[in-house]
Fold this sequence. Notes:
The chain is an alpha/beta fold. It has 2 domains: 2-215, P-loop containing nucleotide triphosphate hydrolases (Rossmann fold, 3-Layer(aba) Sandwich), CATH 3.40.50.300; 222-488, 3-Layer(aba) Sandwich (Rossmann fold). The protein has 17 helices and 16 strands. The protein has helices spanning 24-32, 40-51, 65-80, 91-105, 121-129, 139-147, 164-169, 173-182, 198-207, 238-248, 260-272, 286-298, 331-338, 359-369, 453-456, 462-465, 472-479, and strands at 2-5, 55-58, 83-87, 112-115, 134-137, 156-161, 188-193, 212-215, 226-232, 252-256, 277-280, 303-306, 319-324, 348-354, 400-401, 407-408. The protein has an 8-stranded parallel beta sheet. Helix 3 packs across helix 4 (91-105). The longest helix is centred in the N-terminal third of the chain and has 16 residues, at 65-80.
Amino acid sequence: MTEIKDVDGGKSSSCQFCELGLAPKLLEAVGKLNFSSPTPIQEKAIPIGLSGRDIFGIAQTGTGKTMAFGLPMLQRIARQGGRGLVVLPTRELALQVDDELKKIGRMAGLRTAVLIGGTSMEPQLRQLKANPHIIIATPGRILDHLSQKNVDLKTVKVVVLDEADRMLDMGFMPDVRKILMAVSKERQTMLFSATMPDEIAHLAERYMKDPIRVEIDRAGTPAELVNHRLYVVQKDQKNRLLECLLSEHGGSVLVFVRTRHGAARVCRAVHRMGHTAAEIHSDRSLAQRREALDGFKSGKFRVLVATDIAARGIDVTGIELVINYDVPEHPDDYIHRIGRTGRAGQRGLAVAMATPDQGEVIRQIEKLAMIMLDITPLPELPPDRLGGGGGRPERGNVRRPDRFGRRERPGAAGGSRPKNRLEGRRESRPSNSGRPFRSSLADGPKGIGISDLGDLIPEIGASFFEGATPVAGEKARRSGRGRSGRRR
Length: 488
């Protein structure tokens, strides 16, 4: 695989679109969109795409990848015939790519078909009967059309797999392989990804012909214009910290949570804080998701609360702040989440709210991104607004944290009941996940990285801080079952 690298982001380039080999009509369309000069990925990928070679592009979201593959695809289809196929992981991303390609191809009478789930098949059948030049699809829906013989992919001459690593994360790789097997072998394949897991590399080796690797940034590199801030908080403090951050920053804010139920709770909390907000996740219909996204783009909603369905490829400029309300389980997702800010030459801020047991996750993010996430002291938090962490409000007989973060019932001190249910078990079964950081350090000096905390935390309360998994007998006792599996 031939490699073309530009790890400095191509800042010194003075290349113009007219120097890339594009046809006059495409140059005219580009000029009407006020694109004066190409981005680094466009500068490197467009000439290779026009030559017909396969491309393996590694670049972050928000770098102009749609035009990097769209312009060569349009020109090759216009000159050589056939169809183009763009496969993407989410409906929103498919609709966005369709909008971008239509801006360029409108003058030439470009016809597209968008095949995505969550909508009726009938409009899609009408689009296919109109003999589209380019099909834009999510993996599951195009396989539905293939199984019903609504579309023939043997006429496809250019295939684009965009956000390939996201499709891997979502379990679409088997579907992607079926799609590639259904397309003519005499094709050009362009694959774009922000990271390069082993399975993506194997996919390129098997289904691409001597691809040229275009790497604008090292895989896993976060956006350069993004500043990072890390807070260590208890779960019941998150909404109060969120309210503080929304008061501190006046621009648009994107909040990422782990689950769709969490998104609904946080969205309700933001409304109680007096801000306009919308939610976007898998439980919302396509119309609801488009309404939320369009409202966020137009400024109708200041805050968008989202699961990782919105983490990649959503083209919303001017986002001032990205908040990881829930730190992602996979380090790659952190890179893609924060890629929503710091775009188009504007600076952005990424905030992570980590709980005291997430030290290992933060260390993995630091390792992948090659950055140090400094712990920022907690500001003075506002009063709680009914359910500080999105859960139930505390009542009189609910466990409350002591100064080490452990929870005890009122009046338990001095009794025979241990303060920590797992106390005494930790020594015999140590954790393999590493020592997490302590929430009390959130008020400590700024400039301390997660990687330094192992040397700073004394061996106090080790039974709590090491976080071992309960043994089988403990799990059975909690569920009310004996070791035999029968319920007591």
